Amino acid sequence: MPSPGSYIAAHKERFVQELLQLLRLPSISADPAFSQDVLETAGAVAQALIHAGCDNVEVCDTEGYPIVYGEKILDPELPTVLVYGHYDVQPPDPVDLWDSPPFEPVIRETELHPEGAIYARGASDDKGQFYMHVKALEYMIRENKLPCNVKFMVEGEEEVGSVSLEEFLKANRDRLSNDIILISDTGMIARDIPSITTGLRGLSYVEVEVTGPNRDLHSGLYGGAVANPINVLAKMIASLHDENNRITIPGFYDKVVELSREERELMAEAPFDLEAYKKALDIDAVHGEAGYVTNERNAIRPTLDVNGIWGGYTGEGAKTVIPSKAYAKISMRLVPNQDWREIMDVFTAHFEKIAPPGVRVSVKPHHGGQAYVTPIDHIGYQAASKAYEETFGKTPVPQRGGGSIPIVTLFEQELESKIILMGFGLDSDAIHSPNEHFGIWNYLKGIETIPYFYRYFTEMSRG
Amino acid sequence: MPSPGSYIAAHKERFVQELLQLLRLPSISADPAFSQDVLETAGAVAQALIHAGCDNVEVCDTEGYPIVYGEKILDPELPTVLVYGHYDVQPPDPVDLWDSPPFEPVIRETELHPEGAIYARGASDDKGQFYMHVKALEYMIRENKLPCNVKFMVEGEEEVGSVSLEEFLKANRDRLSNDIILISDTGMIARDIPSITTGLRGLSYVEVEVTGPNRDLHSGLYGGAVANPINVLAKMIASLHDENNRITIPGFYDKVVELSREERELMAEAPFDLEAYKKALDIDAVHGEAGYVTNERNAIRPTLDVNGIWGGYTGEGAKTVIPSKAYAKISMRLVPNQDWREIMDVFTAHFEKIAPPGVRVSVKPHHGGQAYVTPIDHIGYQAASKAYEETFGKTPVPQRGGGSIPIVTLFEQELESKIILMGFGLDSDAIHSPNEHFGIWNYLKGIETIPYFYRYFTEMSRG
């Protein structure tokens, strides 16, 4: 087919401006203070789908934030692609570390992005990446290049665990029926090294509370005589890793699939520059589980990280207090065959068990999701691979991703189809961090590549 | 002399109302947002001294908050008592745990305080306790019972380390010259067990910062591959105590004076009910250094407590982040012969030394003070002891206090006189905690007892 390039060239200014507009909406699903903005964003997504040419666009109510649905059905006999994305974003804090306001997108040229990158919360995760699909659809419909049916499902609770999604899937099985699910919510290795994520880590996210005395105490009158919840929490957290940085929770590793030497050697072929990695993070050393290299530690191995901790006096100056309570948010990244609910259970049992006398401990489950693997011989993967070959001129590398998209396994289970993760972001996009950005080159390359996927997937489905 | 009781009986309503007025001023020295209130409080204290009959009252400027001075000089040949107090208070947070607003004092009757207790931040520490001295002076002047000279020095930075006091003392040695320094900023064992604090613990207060990657990272993409500053900080804090809850910092115990078996046996005579202690704090067990009992752990042994910790995402919901930084406020309580500056140095050296690869650590000294001991054969102690005998009908118990009043050692060094700590508060006053309060009985008993101290101290000074 004639390249989508000419259409993109003619409309790229508008494509960028439309994305900037979407990024100005602070759709922070984790903070109730922004609920009106999240709802407004759902409406904006619906408008975008209608403008792109979708039919039956609907902002579907849920127990939480709405899910935006839209479709273009050419012929029930043709294969159907279901596109998933999310319009909610992570909280922007610490806001003071942003070089420009997180919800006032600006375009800056960088060494890595000479064509400019869009700086804003959600630029890459996931507004910029799902909007590529909206614009790719616009092209295919306007230019009469859509070879199959397409459905869109864009949710607003991905950053808080997609709490309403499962019920929505169960209630809309027919409407959502498809032959393949297409998601761009991951990254690729580099601009010149396209890659397709074939595996994702699972997640178990908990919040713990340690309670000591029933009130804050003066550390002079009580210091040394009662258990200090912060000191205790620190000791408990410290005990969760051994000297080899292996997690000490009994049963944690029981179901972990150990990769074969062959597989690890294949992975090792992906280019990786440890010095550049350390330099980019300004650290003098990496840190992780003994016996594995960095690219294994963040992809094929389970982990436990404290994502937040607080307790006592954290204001200006000094307060000599022994607090009544201390808290931490802890998440565990999981690998195939670990069950996130089982891991949450073994964590809870262990954490309660190691609480010393003098304190009480409670563990609150937040959310979780299973790990996932895509077989590279699936036609969905093959079609995606050929699409990248068209636009990048080389075969993409199958890659294990360290992140979690809990809904991926939910889709497989509820909709009984495979998921293709065509990510166009880069690790350097700083998603979940200050100064998140998305390269304009990546954005347009995604819009250009996606239509080829539709074409090859439709062809391969026929034969 | 005729008892001050009748004067107190005639004026106690006013004495209470005047204190409530003072407690309505939120003089939080740790928080710059309240600077105007702190200054206003200094003015109110000056007015109170003038009303009580002080001459030459002055609100003395310093680099920080002012020090209020006032005096009543009868005759240079007579002994001079210098009264010290502080008009600043601790921050009230967590405010939501207060049963009534911290700066809207209310009087509530309790089992322990059938005559009522005043609930407000600063009620006991130290507005209520220094104001006893103002009212005792009013009585002595009005009733012509002042036997000696008196000077008042009331500062506004005690809760933030008395940062301006040393310079003020150096600059005002003559004006502040005295024969004994009298302070009520401590407690007594119980209403029916008067006690005089003969020892105080010192303090070294630091703030630590652990920096990992140069920005917050997505825990999926980087989790397991880089050092997480929160996990590292937890491990570092945990390592500061060994399995016997002894502090592991090299050199920390070098100068600690071990008490004799005899002294410890004397201390053990002070009544203590461990079950009641645990019940009052709602804890199932006490916790502390092996080989010492609770009353020793919080008085004659040095300690290390984390007073505050924060890092990562602490808002609502879940954020899967590896933060760039984690922080903690850490204070060490010290005992006689430990030097707070040396302890700060050994802490800093040790904490920097144990930082693992992959993070950078910085230690910021906050403030500190030396431990102190009052000899019980000093005439100041003897005079105070006789004063308690007059009003309580029994000899007070000499007691080691766990808290720190850093300025006590500063006074001894700069003004070359001894300090008598006549405290009328109770451990249950919840100073530095929500629902701080001060018994009206304690308040009036203090006002009644103080004039006897002046009488006996003047008599004993004569020889």
Automatic annotation (TrEMBL), chains A, B:
Keywords: Hydrolase, Metal-binding, Protease. GO terms for biological process: proteolysis. Residues 199-358 form the Peptidase M20 dimerisation domain. GO terms for molecular function: metal ion binding; peptidase activity. This is Peptidase, M20/M25/M40 family protein.
